[in-house]
Design a protein that fits this description.
Strand content of chain A: 25-35%
Shape of chain B: elongated
Shape of chain A: globular
Largest sheet of chain B: 4 strands, antiparallel
Helix content of chain B: 25-40%
Structural class of chain A: alpha+beta
Radius of gyration of chain B: 15 Å
Oligomer: heterodimer
Helix content of chain A: 25-40%
Distance between the termini of chain B: 25 Å
Distance between the termini of chain A: 36 Å
Number of helices of chain A: 12
Number of strands of chain A: 19
Structural class of chain B: alpha+beta
Order of helices and strands of chain B: HEEEHHEEHEH
Largest interface: A-B, 48 and 40 residues
Strand order of the largest sheet of chain B: 2-3-5-4
Radius of gyration of chain A: 25 Å
Strand content of chain B: 25-35%
Largest sheet of chain A: 10 strands, mixed
């Protein structure tokens, strides 16, 4: 029988279902648990937390869930890859080692710590040596906003994960390793794939892409025949069962809810897709127009035929910078004339903001129940709507106007149109805006700094 | 509506407009200020219709000033199209004040679009989706 490796998704983002990793290790056989925590803005949130407390800056959910599942992981030989380390992978690794000791696994757990993606401390040097780190969308050089930068991390690939696994790590903790690298790393380690075998690298990357958003490929958020998706109170998170040749089956544990079918996998494949011919990662470029899907039994989709191309010379950099402030206020107006009342309230609010001399970069009004999701495409609303939520957002570089805006919502209750409710939450919160600055950097500036350490519990 | 005017030029007596959601399912996501919508044929037979009728121009007209530009890619292997809707997210990410700052439901907004199909197919689709 041909050997295959089962990589199971345990988290699709920081804030995903906490029971998922527990179910993945308990409800059936897996070899690896892959835990993706990082989205574009997650790093900046973690950087803020680290600024307040230098011991923080990683996904604190991760050591907690490890504490719950470590005994069964050790018993069954399941290994974990995760980018839970955020901007403090060392702190995360130490918390996991402490958790291991608390559950009596001193000397029985090895953590592979991957560092080198964090380039915040190297930015001035890089800029001085001619790296513009220009915004990929606008072309502006980073020097324009250098003093506002909060975090800067290069997206790195699977290589350090492979090294850590080769050296015997049970749990690999990284910072900004790509979501797909967390799945590809174990495959390269297990099968000994050549890192320049572009088709296999692309295949492992596509496997990673399909499972990286958790249940979104196994029935969650599935539009096609959504009523037919049963058991989502206990969704089966996806598992990639991968063969040495790079073909694989997407499946989930028996007895779990959701569904794995061609539709569920296809919806995930097109999620956040750019040019399908070149899905670029630090490890290679996958061509999504080569992917073949076939239903191969209940909750089993066979994926094959994937072709890929060489890795590029550049790595993407995720930079977070302080932009300004925003706030969103809401009020609910009831029948009769709900929409008309909400519009009248919006007009009054805007006149008051203007009379106060407040200046905003933008004021956005949406009417939830009328146009908040589809804008003008939704067409004219039913004249007899039972209720409409007025939702007004403002954004400014300075805090003062946004702060004052938050105090102008509640007064509308007694000084505006009638039949208004839904303000029990109090004043809206002023939020700091941390913006995302995608850039490219020569990989030769990053790779020599990547380091792997093995730490024992 | 610009969409209907455009469709009318392709209209013959054997063609009828139906909502795209009768022929396709979809998922959308974001990259900065760009939303992407993947449109997937509900049945293999619908793929040639999607490929021919869900054009870049028609999608751009559908969204009008909600977007600043549209790119279109074909994935025949998945019987899917991918659209990049630039400037769709009011700044995108954390800057956007929109409810749908991450473009999660641009998918269903696109499925509202009406496309011309053969009258026989339209009759089947309309009867299947009759209230």
């Amino acid at each position: 029988m041909t050997r295959s490796i089962r990589v199971a998704a345990g988290q699709g983002f920081w804030g995903d279902w906490l029971e998922a990793p527990v179910r993945q290790v308990n409800d059936g056989p897996i070899d690896y648990l892959m835990m993706d925590y990082l989205a574009e803005v997650t790093m900046s949130i973690m950087q803020k937390q680290k600024g307040r407390n230098p011991a923080m800056g990683y996904a604190r959910d991760f050591p907690q869930v490890m504490e719950r599942i470590l005994p069964v992981m050790v018993e069954r030989g399941i290994r974990v890859t995760s980018n839970a380390g955020g901007v403090n992978p060392r702190g995360c690794a130490e918390a996991v080692l402490e958790a291991a000791r608390r559950v009596g696994l001193r000397g029985k757990v090895r953590v592979g710590l991957v560092t080198g993606d964090d380039i915040l401390g190297r930015l001035d040097d890089l800029i001085a040596r001619g790296h513009a780190l220009a915004d990929m969308d606008t072309g502006r050089p980073l020097s324009n906003i250098r003093d506002k930068v909060l975090s800067a991390n290069a997206y790195i690939g699977m290589a350090p994960i492979v090294t850590a696994l080769d050296q015997g790590a049970d749990i690999v903790i990284t910072g900004r390793v790509t979501d797909t690298g967390l799945t590809l790393g174990p495959l390269v380690h297990e099968f000994g794939w050549d890192p320049d075998d572009w088709d296999r690298i692309a295949a492992g990357t596509v496997a990673g892409h399909i499972i990286e958003c958790g249940a979104q490929s196994s029935g969650g958020n599935l539009l096609k025949d959504w009523r037919a998706v049963k058991g989502l109170e206990n969704p089966g998170f996806p598992i990639a069962d991968v063969s040495e040749d790079g073909s694989f089956v997407i499946t989930k544990h028996p007895g779990t809810g959701g569904v794995v079918n061609v539709a569920s996998v296809t919806e995930q494949l097109v999620y956040e897709m750019g040019d399908p011919h070149s899905y670029i990662t630090p490890d290679g470029v996958a061509d999504f127009t080569t992917i073949q899907l076939k239903q191969a039994g209940k909750d089993r989709v066979r994926v094959s035929g994937i072709a890929g191309g060489p890795r590029t010379d550049m790595l993407k950099v995720s930079i977070a910078w302080f932009y300004g402030y925003k706030a969103v206020g809401t009020l609910v107006y009831s029948w009769p004339d709900a929409f008309e009342k909400a519009r009248a309230a919006d007009a009054i609010l805007r006149k008051r903001l203007s009379a106060l001399g407040l200046e905003f970069e933008q004021i956005l009004t949406e009417y939830v129940g009328v146009d908040a999701t589809h804008g003008a495409l939704a067409g004219p609303p039913d004249p007899d709507l039972p209720e409409v939520q007025l939702r007004v957002g403002v954004r400014a570089g300075e805090k003062e106007p946004v702060e004052r805006f938050t105090r102008e919502i509640a007064p509308l209750v007694l000084t505006g149109p009638p039949s208004v409710t839904g303000f029990a939450g109090g004043r809206p919160q002023v939020e700091e805006i941390v913006a995302y600055w995608p850039a490219l950097v020569d990989r030769r500036e990053i790779e020599p700094h990547i380091a792997v350490e093995i730490l024992e519990a | 509506m610009p969409v209907k005017k455009a469709a009318a030029s392709a209209l013959t007596e054997s063609v009828q407009l139906v909502p795209l959601r009768y022929l396709a399912h979809a998922r959308s996501g974001d990259k900065g200020d760009t939303a992407n919508v993947g449109v997937i044929a509900l049945e293999p037979d619908y793929w040639p219709v999607l490929r021919q009728e869900v054009t870049r121009e028609r999608v751009a007209r559908h969204f009008g000033d909600m977007v600043s530009g549209v790119e279109r890619f074909e994935l025949p292997n998945l019987r899917a199209l991918n659209f990049l809707l630039h400037g769709a997210l009011d700044g995108g990410g954390t800057l956007s004040l929109k409810t749908d700052a991450q473009g999660k439901v641009y998918s269903t907004a696109l499925l509202r679009m009406e496309i011309p199909v053969a009258a026989s197919l339209a009759a089947t689709l309309l009867s299947r989706h009759a209230p």
